[in-house]
UniProtKB/TrEMBL annotation:
Name the record gives this protein: non-specific serine/threonine protein kinase
Keywords (A to Z) from UniProt: Cell membrane, Kinase, Leucine-rich repeat, Membrane, Repeat, Serine/threonine-protein kinase, Transferase, Transit peptide, Transmembrane, Transmembrane helix
Extent of the signal sequence: none
Gene Ontology process terms (BP): RNA modification
Known catalytic reactions: L-seryl-[protein] + ATP = O-phospho-L-seryl-[protein] + ADP + H(+); L-threonyl-[protein] + ATP = O-phospho-L-threonyl-[protein] + ADP + H(+)
EC number: 2.7.11.1
Per-repeat ranges for PPR: 89-124, 191-225, 398-432, 499-533, 534-568
Classification via PANTHER family: (WILD MALAYSIAN BANANA) HYPOTHETICAL PROTEIN, PENTATRICOPEPTIDE REPEAT-CONTAINING PROTEIN
Transmembrane segments: 1437-1462
Family per similarity comment: Belongs to the RLP family.
């Protein structure tokens, strides 16, 4: 019974019962507020019922009420009760002290209460001291804790069991591990709690060795470690990265049988392995946790973040989201911060931005902790704009966030913005730290802003970071990069102990500004200080040597760097190549570059070498350098300019003109040039074509003045040229006009002109000497560059090749023995007189029949590097199996008719490209011989090769492209094909390959394109695409592959095209499309996929073509399809989708959709529900055939002005055909057949613009090899006619199998571009118009099964392209026309017309009367379009099927009854079955053993 609260006074027993009841309510989980309300009511009754004569029960009850208040954390109520208690005991004080110590906000009150206790005369107990020590720890007040320590020693409580442990906890919280260890060492007896406390303290402050030593002492002392002990020490191992000792502790966890690992211990193990980077073991630990909590998930995700594995972190986060139904594992801000940090290195579109959305959904967008990681993610992905938007949206900001904005903009080269945020940070009142100052200083260093840097220096001093190594190092770097070397040196000298960064900054500053002696001196001092130089140090030293031309010194430092074990990087090679090249040591520079790993990756090295070749006029090395650059970037303008200057320096003006001509074709629009100047604290920024500056007029006037001075100098130059030609000195040749600019710069020429004019006025004789000297030098220069002469050996080889041609073709004009300068012949390029390139591509050489071994003569060209005979139609064997072509590098003989085995070029050691596509080479492919050269590209497509794909391609270590398409190759792919390290392009489509695809495909990590389509591969697709991170194109279509779609395609971030069509793929589409943001084509048609369209597919915003036709997909089209704004082609034909109205409402929002194929879907939709559609403005192809649509033709179609193809056949549409359908200007293909349209044909059909004056099939819609549209073919093959682009569509008007009436309009004759007119199976009447003969392009005219009368116009014989003409089953009469295409038509085309006669056989009257058998066969051949025939056929079929099912069921029931009721029959039946299977088993085993022995004998005879 609850106490009676209505009484004003209660006895002690009643109050005690009330307190017990309230405590019971608290333990039972009742709401805290309700229990507190009852406690306060008891407090009120206690005050009212207490009397001075009964203090003892009052104190006892007060202690109980104080305990209740303490449990409820009602501190003010407890203090009020304590103050009102007449004689509180020590227990009363201890209860309140304990409550105060647990609340940091009330901890200071605990010290005042302890003083009251001491002043009251009561002696504090051990719990009193423990509570006081706990309060000191909560306040991190070491002084107060030490005072409590002294009080405990005075009162003699250090020998108790609980006070020393409280002291350990207090010192640990106050950051005094030394005092904690001293207390621990002074303890007489130590229990497990004390050991755990001291070890936790040491681990917390980084004293792992001490903690592990104490752990060992604890174990040796016989005290078994607890879960808390091991958790603490494991945490220390994780912080220290000590995996070895962590594994030892893990062994303890496994070995201790009495230990039951709880969740904290398992999380500690997980944290240790994650912190040590052993994620594999961490995953094993995680998988063994039965129910991981949020700490477990956060630890795992943080571990992936620590090793930079963003994909795994994202995967773990997705798994966490999948189990978040449990409230304990809802992601918090630590989870999101960890996963965002892990995905920072991934593109923001794939990881960061979706996670940002998760942050917003979780309501954590205001979290500063998460905001910092998001900012770092955006800056890492070089999206400062997104970072600024996020930063502005945050209401709460801390100094870390401001520092991130400064550092992020500084790292991206946006120094001005970085400084702006730094100033704003100061204005907002935030205190800067060393990192923010360092970032701001780095920005000023990049901006060359010395004044701003000096102001930041003052801020460093003001903030007290002058001695900070981070800020001081940035100051040194700022002054050094701004050229203020004395300031940099002064700051450097004030650093007490400079680190390597400070030394490198100072050495680099002196080196880059030409003071190499100081740089070398500082380097020596750095070595004497005991610092080891790194790669940055040697970059500074080599740069100093390069600037000052110190070759030997540079070689010395290069040797020192290699001795120190530092691998040279790109900047090291750049400095060294520049040093050697400027010194004229070009051969040494080439040798150094050939040893560099950057030779093929970084063309800048070759440009440096090419620039020096101009100075030293070294043509061979310069041309080689230019070839290396242009091989990587053929459109590089700067290299063309340098090469042109090189040839100009040698006087090769014909080559210069050719290069300049080529450069004009390569010129691209450049970004406008920018400049800025600071005047009077104002920065003025200018750009090309800038007219916005306030002082633009003054700028124009200054430019005009400068232009006038330049024109004056030009006039002086012309006068100087006239001086050179005086006194009969001629310096002009017929081939080359006078020009002195190649060897004298414009500035030098202008100065020299002024000098000579001045001398001419004052001292004519002196100037005469100078002009004669200059004229002599100039004549030598001009006449030193004659055209190259041809090498006699090369000339003989080319003449022998030309003699092998019976007659000269148009492509070889200029070849012949009369001209010995073969370098000027068509298609030939020379280098120093030797033929290096022969380009005779597309020269119609097939008109020249080859005699003898004409092609073999080309093998005598010893320096030939490039041979191009493509697209000539040459035939016969190609002679390349001997020792010819020793220097060949590129061979292109594609698009010819060469036969025999393929060429191998055994003597060519530099062959890199071999293209023999579209020839007739046959036999096997000799991979071993091909790989004897460093071949990179092998194109063997469209030949007649047979046999297996050969093994041996693995020897092609640098092979990039392998194309074996369209041959007759069989067998499976060899295993060594998967070991080509640099293979990027693998294409073996249209062969007869079989077998399964090996998982070793994942070893080809550099692949960008895989095309294995149109083969016979079987099995599942290996799920290894997560290793192919560069894959862009995947085509495995038209094979026999099965299984599910590989999920690892989700990780191919560069993927653009995926084609898996025409296979037997099954399951749901489970690919994670959220990462495939570059995907533009996805074709999975003609498979067995089921389920719904995955919502993630709509995240592929660049998707242009999507084909999911002929699968088993179901459901409605998701609303998110609106996001596919780039989609132009969509095919969902042959599935089970529903709700056509909803699908069209979604798809109308796709602005670029041009082709929509929805055949055989959405059955039973009504067109009346589609009236609100207003989109599809660019629609060109719309196919809604066989959808069982109801209603009339939708009115929204009239707004599709670009519609070219419309197919709504095989539906249940009715009503009249609207006239506006014929007014669509682009429409040229209409199929309304197999519906129930009635009425007459609209006249607008005879005035369709696309069929009168323009070619209706000129649309631009194209889908590559996707099926834009498939039309049934009525031939016996049963195959469909596939059209992939509008230009292949035949313009057609198909209205057959409807209920149309009226005459055939004569105006159809205007449709001169119409190819197909099908009006069969309707109720048309009247004669066949004679005007139909004007349809000059007509190929098919079907008027069968109507009510036409009259005769067949003889003018129809003028239709020369007419291939099908059918007028059967009408009421036509007269003679059948003869001549033209009518002579090819059979009698079946005229049957069913009793009054129609054939002039070819006039012996019988009415020979085209109805033939029942012929009628039946003809009606069946027309897709059973006659409704009565179709209905009767379906009825008979259904009846036959029902009869068969009934007979089967009756027979099965009879057999079952016999076996059930007749036991002898049942025994005999099962005996017969057992005997049959036993016999089958024996026969099978015997035959299998026989085959096995046969094959073993075959393999080992």
């Amino acid at each position: 019974m609850p106490p009676d609260w209505s009484r004003s006074r209660l006895g002690p027993c009643s109050l005690e019962e009330a307190l017990a009841a309230a405590a019971a309510l608290l333990r039972s989980g009742s709401p805290r507020r309700a229990v507190l309300r009852r406690a306060r009511a008891i407090h009120a009754l206690f005050v009212v019922s207490s009397t001075p004569s009964s203090p003892t029960p009052t104190t006892f009850l007060a202690n109980q009420l104080l305990s209740l208040y303490a449990h409820l954390s009602a501190i003010p109520d407890a203090l009020a009760l304590l103050r009102s208690t007449p004689r509180p005991s020590v227990v009363s004080y201890n209860t309140v002290l304990s409550a105060l110590s647990r609340a940091p906000r009330h901890a200071p009150e605990g010290f005042r209460l302890f003083r009251r206790l001491h002043a009251s005369g009561l002696r504090p107990t051990a719990p009193s001291l423990c509570a006081l020590l706990r309060a000191a720890g909560e306040l991190h007040d070491r002084r107060a804790g030490a005072a409590a320590h002294s009080q405990a020693a005075t009162l003699g409580f250090l020998a108790s069991d609980i006070v020393p442990t409280a002291l350990l906890q207090m010192y640990s919280q106050c950051g005094a591990p030394g005092d904690a260890n001293q207390v621990f060492d002074e303890m007489a007896t130590r229990d497990g709690v004390a050991w755990n406390c001291v070890m936790h303290c040491n681990v917390r402050y980084g004293y792992l060795d001490r903690a592990l030593g104490q752990f060992c002492r604890m174990v040796r002392g016989g005290l078994p470690p607890t879960e808390s002990t091991l958790s603490s020490v494991l945490s220390g191992c994780g912080r220290a990265g000590d995996r070895r000792r962590g594994r030892v502790l893990h062994g303890w966890v496994v070995k201790l049988e009495e230990l039951d690992p709880d969740m904290p211990l398992q999380n500690a193990l997980l944290d240790m392995y994650s912190s040590c980077g052993d994620l594999e073991t961490a995953l094993c630990v995680f998988e063994r946790i039965e129910t991981p909590d949020l700490v477990s998930w956060n630890t795992l995700i943080a571990g992936f973040s620590g090793v930079g594995n963003g994909f795994s972190a994202m995967h773990a986060f997705v798994q966490l989201k999948a189990v978040q139904f449990d409230e304990r594992v809802v992601p918090d801000e630590y989870t999101l911060a960890a996963v965002v940090s892990a995905c920072a290195t991934l593109p923001a579109m794939f990881g960061g931005k979706p996670l940002h959305a998760e942050v917003i959904k979780a309501g954590l967008e205001s979290s500063v902790f998460v905001g910092n990681t998001l900012l770092n993610m955006y800056f890492t992905n070089e999206e400062p704009g997104s970072a600024r938007i996020l930063f502005d949206s945050l209401t709460q900001k801390d100094v870390i966030m401001w520092t991130e904005m400064v550092a992020g903009h500084s790292s991206l080269g946006e120094g001005e913005l970085a400084l702006r945020y730094f100033v704003s940070m100061l204005q907002e009142g935030y205190s800067v730290d060393s990192f923010s100052l360092s970032s701001a200083l780095n920005s000023t260093a990049e901006l060359a802003g010395l004044k701003q840097g000096e102001m930041l220096h003052a801020q460093v001093v003001k903030s007290g970071y002058e001695g900070n190594i981070c800020a001081s190092g940035s100051l040194v770097d700022m002054y050094a990069k701004n050229g203020a070397l004395p300031g940099a040196y002064l700051v450097f000298c004030n650093i007490q102990k400079p680190d390597l960064k400070c030394w490198n900054s100072l050495i680099g500053g002196y080196g880059n500004h030409g003071n190499s002696e100081m740089a070398f001196k500082l380097f020596g001092e750095m070595i004497r200080d005991g610092l080891q130089p790194d790669h940055v140090t040697y970059i500074s030293l080599l740069s100093a040597c390069s600037h000052c031309g110190l070759v030997e010194k540079g070689k010395f430092y290069w040797f020192c760097m290699m001795t120190d074990g530092i691998m040279p990087g790109f900047k090291h090679y750049t400095s060294m190549v520049s040093l050697l090249s400027r010194a004229g040591l070009l051969d040494e520079a080439v040798d150094l570059m050939m040893k560099s790993p950057f030779t093929k990756k970084c063309p800048e090295l070759w440009r440096i070498l090419l620039s020096s070749c101009i100075t030293f006029r070294n043509l061979s090395i310069g041309v080689h350098a230019a070839e290396q650059v242009l091989e990587q970037d053929p459109d590089d303008i700067s290299t063309h300019i340098l090469l042109s200057n090189l040839y100009a320096s040698l006087g090769k003006w014909d080559v210069v003109a050719e290069i300049r001509k080529k450069m004009r074709g390569l010129m691209v629009e450049k970004e406008p040039g920018l400049s800025w100047v600071e005047m009077k604290n104002v920065v003025h920024v200018f750009s090309a074509d800038d007219e916005c500056h306030s002082q633009i007029d003054d700028c124009h006037r200054e430019l005009l003045r400068l232009k006038g001075n330049m024109e004056l100098l030009d006039t002086c130059e012309n006068e100087f040229m006239s001086i050179l030609t005086k006194d009969g000195i001629r310096i002009q040749t017929p081939e080359q006009p006078v020009s002195i600019k190649p060897f004298i710069s414009c500035k030098e020429m202008s100065l020299l002109s002024q000098f000579c004019l001045c001398l001419q006025r004052k001292a004519g004789s002196c100037c005469r000497c100078i002009r004669i000297l200059l004229a002599f030098v100039f004549v030598l220069h001009v006449h030193g560059g004659h055209s190259q002469t041809c090498d006699p050996t090369d000339l003989a080889a080319l003449l022998a090749f030309s003699d092998g041609l019976d007659r000269m073709g148009a492509g070889l004009v200029g070849w012949g023995p009369n001209d010995t300068s073969c370098c000027s012949w068509t298609g030939i390029s020379c280098d120093l007189g030797r033929v290096v390139e022969l380009d005779l591509s597309n020269r119609s050489l097939s008109r020249n029949s080859l005699r003898g071994e004409a092609l073999a003569q080309l093998g005598r060209l010893a320096n030939l590097r490039v041979l191009d005979l493509s697209a000539n139609g040459l035939s016969g064997p190609f002679p390349a199996s001997g020792g010819g072509f020793p220097a060949i590098e590129v061979v292109n003989i594609s698009s010819n008719g060469f036969t025999g085995p393929h060429p191998v070029f055994p003597g060519a050691r530099n062959l890199t490209v071999l293209d023999i596509t579209e020839n007739a080479f046959s036999g096997d492919i000799n991979a071993t011989a091909l790989c004897s050269s460093p071949v990179k590209i092998l194109r063997f497509s469209a030949n007649a090769f047979s046999g297996d794909v050969p093994a041996g391609f693995s020897q092609c270590k640098v092979l990039n492209e392998l194309s074996l398409d369209s041959n007759g190759l069989t067998g499976s792919l060899p295993n060594d094909l998967y070991t080509i390290p640099e293979l990027r392009w693998l294409s073996i489509q249209e062969n007869q390959l079989s077998g399964s695809l090996d998982e070793a495909l994942g070893n080809l990590s550099e692949l960008t394109q895989i095309d294995l389509s149109n083969n016979m591969f079987t099995g599942t697709i290996p799920d290894v695409f997560g290793k192919l991170m560069s894959l862009e194109f995947l085509n495995l279509g038209s094979n026999q592959l099965n299984g599910t779609l590989p999920l690892s395609l989700s990780y191919c971030l560069m993927l653009r095209v995926v084609s898996l069509r025409n296979n037997s793929m099954s399951g749901e589409i489970a690919i994670d499309f959220s990462l495939l943001t570059k995907l533009n084509t996805f074709d999975a048609g003609v498979n067995r996929l089921h389920g719904a369209i995955p919502p993630g597919l709509t995240l592929c915003t660049q998707l242009r073509m999507l084909n999911l036709g002929r699968n088993k997909l179901q459901g409605e089209l998701p609303e998110s399809f609106k996001n596919l704004t780039s989609l132009s082609y969509l095919s969902l034909a042959g599935n089970g989708f529903t709700n056509l109205s909803s699908a069209l409402q979604v798809l109308q929002h796709l602005p670029n959709l041009t082709s929509l194929v929805l055949t055989s879907n959405f059955h039973g939709g009504e067109t009346t529900l589609m009236d609100g559609i207003e989109g599809f403005k660019r629609m060109q192809v719309l196919v809604l055939a066989n959808c069982a649509l109801l209603g009339t033709i939708p009115r929204w179609l009239q707004s599709l002005k670009s519609l070219s193809v419309l197919d709504i056949s095989w539906n249940n549409l009715h009503g009249e055909i609207p006239p506006w359908l014929g007014n669509l200007d682009s429409l040229f293909y209409i199929d309304l057949s197999n519906n129930s349209f009635s009425g007459e044909l609209p006249a607008s059909f005879t005035q369709m613009k696309s069929l009168i004056s323009s070619n209706g099939s000129s649309g631009q819609a194209s889908t590559g090899d996707l099926q834009l549209f498939i039309k049934k073919n009525s031939t016996s093959t049963g195959k469909g006619l596939q059209y992939n682009q509008l230009s292949s569509f035949p313009s057609s008007l198909i209205l057959s199998n409807n209920k149309l009436v009226g005459p055939i309009l004569p105006a159809f004759g205007h449709l001169v571009k119409l190819h197909v007119l099908d009006l069969g199976f309707n109720n048309f009447s009247g004669p066949i118009p004679d005007e139909l003969s004007n349809m000059s392009s007509l190929e098919i005219l079907d008027l069968a099964h109507n009510d036409l009368s009259g005769s067949i116009p003889s003018s129809l014989t003028k239709l020369n392209f007419l291939s099908k003409f059918d007028v059967s089953y009408n009421n036509l009469s007269g003679d059948v026309p003869t001549g033209g295409q009518f002579s090819t038509f059979t009698s079946e085309d005229f049957v069913g017309n009793p009054a129609l006669h054939s002039s070819r056989n006039s012996s019988s009257t009415g020979e085209f009367a109805g033939n029942p058998a012929l009628c039946l066969s003809r009606s069946q051949s027309c897709y059973k379009r006659v409704v009565t025939t179709e209905v009767s056929y379906e009825t008979r079929f259904a009846f036959g099927l029902l009869t068969m099912e009934s007979g089967f069921a009756f027979g099965l029931l009879t057999v079952w009854n016999v076996l059930f009721f007749a036991s002898s029959w049942r025994a005999a039946y099962f005996q017969m079955v057992d005997s049959f299977f036993d016999r089958l088993y024996v026969i099978t085993v015997v035959n299998l053993n026989r085959l096995r022995r046969k094959w073993e004998h075959k393999d080992h005879p």
